[in-house]
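Deliverable D2.4 — example input (structure tokens):
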């Protein structure tokens, strides 16, 4: 499949739409979670969270797939990509929002991190199911 086929174009379009939605949803969430403090901190928290969420959304599927393929076939293969990605992203978010002195730090980062974990786990489970189906298809005579 070449890089210009419609399936690949739709995939990138879908990823960009998902990243834009992540920017809007989680940026708005951070704005809302910090609105009770001064407006400039709330706006900056929204911009930081939205930007980080958008970029992370673009990278998550590729990273889960790469990690899943490198891990040996055992039960950790499903959970480890999600744990690694969310651990790193949660740490980066914590440092970023701490540096910015986001007033409602935990309310700002826990919901998007929880959703990121669920999404990564879903992707890993889907990859696991696909790998099992491939293995079963190769074993049948």
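Example output (designed residues):
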């Amino acid at each position: 499949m070449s890089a210009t086929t419609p399936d690949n174009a739709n995939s990138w379009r879908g990823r960009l739409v998902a990243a834009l939605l992540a920017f809007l949803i989680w940026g708005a969430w951070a704005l809302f979670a910090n609105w009770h403090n001064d407006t400039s901190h709330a706006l900056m928290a929204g911009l930081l969270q939205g930007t980080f969420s958008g970029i992370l959304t673009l990278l998550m599927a590729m990273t889960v797939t790469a990690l899943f393929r490198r891990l040996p076939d055992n039960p950790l293969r499903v959970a480890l990509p999600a744990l690694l990605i969310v651990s790193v992203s949660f740490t980066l978010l914590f440092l970023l929002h701490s540096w910015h002195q986001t007033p409602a730090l935990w309310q700002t980062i826990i919901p998007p991190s929880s959703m990121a974990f669920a999404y990564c786990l879903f992707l890993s489970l889907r990859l696991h199911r696909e790998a099992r189906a491939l293995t079963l298809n190769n074993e049948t005579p």
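The longest helix spans residues 105-139.
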